[in-house]
Amino acid sequence: MATYSEFLAALVEALGADRVQVGDAVPPRHHTDWSGTAPVPPLALVRPRSTEEVSALLLLCHAHRVPVVPQGGLTGLAGAAVPCAGGVALSLERMNAIEAVDARSATLTVQAGATVQAVQEAALAVGLQFGVDFGARGSAQVGGAVSTNAGGNGVLQYGMVREQVLGLEVVLADGTVLPMLRPMLKNNTGYDLKQCFIGAEGTLGVVTRALLRLRPLPRAKATALVALPDFDAALALLARLQGRFPGALSAFELMWRDFIEASLRWQTLREPFEAPHPFAALIDVGGQDEAGLRDALEEVLGEAMEAGEAVDAAIAQSEAQARALWKIREATAELPANMHPPINFDVSLPQADIGRFAQECRAALSARWPGHLSVFFGHIGDGNLHLSTDASTVNGEEGAVEELVYAQVAAFGGSVSAEHGIGLHKKPYLGASRTPAELAAMRAIKQALDPLHLMNPGKVFDL
Amino acid sequence: MATYSEFLAALVEALGADRVQVGDAVPPRHHTDWSGTAPVPPLALVRPRSTEEVSALLLLCHAHRVPVVPQGGLTGLAGAAVPCAGGVALSLERMNAIEAVDARSATLTVQAGATVQAVQEAALAVGLQFGVDFGARGSAQVGGAVSTNAGGNGVLQYGMVREQVLGLEVVLADGTVLPMLRPMLKNNTGYDLKQCFIGAEGTLGVVTRALLRLRPLPRAKATALVALPDFDAALALLARLQGRFPGALSAFELMWRDFIEASLRWQTLREPFEAPHPFAALIDVGGQDEAGLRDALEEVLGEAMEAGEAVDAAIAQSEAQARALWKIREATAELPANMHPPINFDVSLPQADIGRFAQECRAALSARWPGHLSVFFGHIGDGNLHLSTDASTVNGEEGAVEELVYAQVAAFGGSVSAEHGIGLHKKPYLGASRTPAELAAMRAIKQALDPLHLMNPGKVFDL
């Protein structure tokens, strides 16, 4: 094995000095991500401009046995993009071109370093939409969204990022380029290799390019906030809406009372209904014309109120009113400023059990930490529950809170990560959602595609 | 290695004599599938009744180094279920229980040997639908549909089988059971292993159980047959319909004139329009009420006619009329009886290029075999083109026709198999759609999950 200095000299020679920053020259923002993991300075930060440069870099790292940590927008919440000491941090930020938008086939080809928002805007420019949206859209990059199989607000209608990916270009640890970019919606020719890299958090290879599916843009949208008496009513209302607007319900965000109260307090908003209610659901539905859609929504919400599934409802009559209703849900952006700090969970459960899970979780937290502040909210339509607890209200016992919550998740047969991934942060709890046989099969695939264990080592699972 | 007779004795002892048929006792229908591949009698046919029995069988085969070919409904068109000499044919037909249907979370748990039709019926019984449908529904089994990532008529709206699979139970070559059945729509906990087995045609393991996603059942449906002047008009009409009925367009089946003529002749049907037209598209759209939906469809087809995208249209006014329109498309069932025999293609292409591909393909066929009978049709919305040529009109030169067509597919950057898979039949052409690096990565995954190469050997690719 060559020394670090020989490796770095070879790196600069292969890629050019302007692509490589070493040691103290690496900007500190590349030392960690939004997960709050302790910063780790990498040996070097490399920012290539093409797939060929990524391939040359990986070939060199492979020859010198230097590990590589791919970095996108660094907005991940599980720590997958935190560098490893002695390794290269590979930032895709200079590969940010939207290379092609094809409105007729509703596809878009993009380099991995483009932001999610750039993809959204390119789709809107041709009268279509990208099916994925989440709060970090302005920073999160396509490669990271693919590598974490990101979720967000559009999952109910269009699925996670996996369902938007028609093709990928990936560079393997030894520099091999896999050009899985054929622009076909259907391609049953051998194993669908690209699936392996979606959600692999950079442990199997580096995503350099994606061919994404775009979706039709509804001409009109209606938004409503609905007050609900209990969790089962929420599920009944959801089923009613799915039946009435098949394929057109784009959001059904459920908020427990604790979340609504915190949101109103943090943002100094007014109570949306005359009285407080145990739950509220924020609903978006797409259609052909504003007025007709609002009428249809009013009709179905009226039926829901008669059936006892809803107790009050506000239908936005303008875009401004819709934004005001969404503001209540967007208190998630206020979590870091108002909890000290927040302990965040992103779990998924069999849909029917979510209400009982939340109840039992809250009871268990209250039994141990009376007076704790915890807020429950989630994309109930796809079984995803978020929970944030203010660490300062549980004596800073973050580890104990995690153990309690993940034990409940395991007892309910749920998943410890619905959409954020495993990274470093959830590694200790992966066994709560996967059997030893599954973990062994994952390790076998890792071994097959990265036999020297150079790709993002120590993330997802240990070898 | 033990002898065959020792292996067979151990097999009968482990599973019981009623699970095992040997040599001449194996019913001939298990010697091949619908692909027309020459029959191969297996060493034995085993029909287990549980996952535990499948696991015991594979453990035993592993110990004795006996290869295993999984068999579902034997309706595959690429030969993936054809036994190998000296190997076990593993039929899932006795594992056909629908184990659970959960209308609230819109999921269904089923054993791999249940038919696609049984799943469809179980979904309808709770007011939902299964998003997958194709002609062989009454025989094709869930395990086969998963293992070939089947397509069919519902792909435009709901995607291929992959997008319906929330969980799988799979038995690996060494008998290990992977219970990837957690009923969650979102589960980002490590690699999404189940994806490896979807479309792997039984070469990585045996699918024994699936957790499937169900879809809302539209209250109303409208069907229309539309005459089109050219291919680009078809794409424009498709985009118009997608924009007008986002998420609700469930079929857009394009038929070239040669297909329509053959269909009318074979089934003694009347010309659907006053004059023949170069193309016709069969359209299904879902909605809330029959009358409103027909009105909306009439309006948008009127717009399309004004824009020159359509030249004539018939909207079904009853279920019987809808069936009559579909009858023209269902001439595919008549192919085997009317072509001698049919040489079938299932390719996919960049959507915008399909018209030109068909034109050039037909011209090349006509140049070499003047007077050949070929019919073109497909699920254009997802880029999938089918083509069948009557072998008796090309001097029985099946191999030459395949070479010609697959060379065109490669030249257009298309896929040699959109939905039928590779099996035995398309193995020689896999390289037209996959690079050597991709094939090497597939082999690495095969090696990782089935190091002794016992699962369906010789299918998809050679090792």
TrEMBL record, chains A, B:
<dbReference type="InterPro" id="IPR016166">
    <property type="entry name" value="FAD-bd_PCMH"/>
</dbReference>
<feature type="domain" description="FAD-binding PCMH-type">
    <location>
        <begin position="38"/>
        <end position="217"/>
    </location>
</feature>
<dbReference type="InterPro" id="IPR006094">
    <property type="entry name" value="Oxid_FAD_bind_N"/>
</dbReference>
<dbReference type="InterPro" id="IPR016169">
    <property type="entry name" value="FAD-bd_PCMH_sub2"/>
</dbReference>
<dbReference type="GO" id="GO:0071949">
    <property type="term" value="F:FAD binding"/>
</dbReference>
<keyword id="KW-0274">FAD</keyword>
<dbReference type="GO" id="GO:0016491">
    <property type="term" value="F:oxidoreductase activity"/>
</dbReference>
<dbReference type="GO" id="GO:0022904">
    <property type="term" value="P:respiratory electron transport chain"/>
</dbReference>
<dbReference type="Pfam" id="PF02913">
    <property type="entry name" value="FAD-oxidase_C"/>
</dbReference>
<dbReference type="InterPro" id="IPR016164">
    <property type="entry name" value="FAD-linked_Oxase-like_C"/>
</dbReference>
<protein>
    <submittedName>
        <fullName>FAD/FMN-containing dehydrogenase</fullName>
    </submittedName>
</protein>
<keyword id="KW-0285">Flavoprotein</keyword>
<keyword id="KW-0560">Oxidoreductase</keyword>
<dbReference type="InterPro" id="IPR016171">
    <property type="entry name" value="Vanillyl_alc_oxidase_C-sub2"/>
</dbReference>
<dbReference type="InterPro" id="IPR036318">
    <property type="entry name" value="FAD-bd_PCMH-like_sf"/>
</dbReference>
<dbReference type="InterPro" id="IPR051264">
    <property type="entry name" value="FAD-oxidored/transferase_4"/>
</dbReference>
<dbReference type="InterPro" id="IPR004113">
    <property type="entry name" value="FAD-bd_oxidored_4_C"/>
</dbReference>
<dbReference type="InterPro" id="IPR016167">
    <property type="entry name" value="FAD-bd_PCMH_sub1"/>
</dbReference>
<comment type="similarity">
    <text>Belongs to the FAD-binding oxidoreductase/transferase type 4 family.</text>
</comment>
<dbReference type="Pfam" id="PF01565">
    <property type="entry name" value="FAD_binding_4"/>
</dbReference>
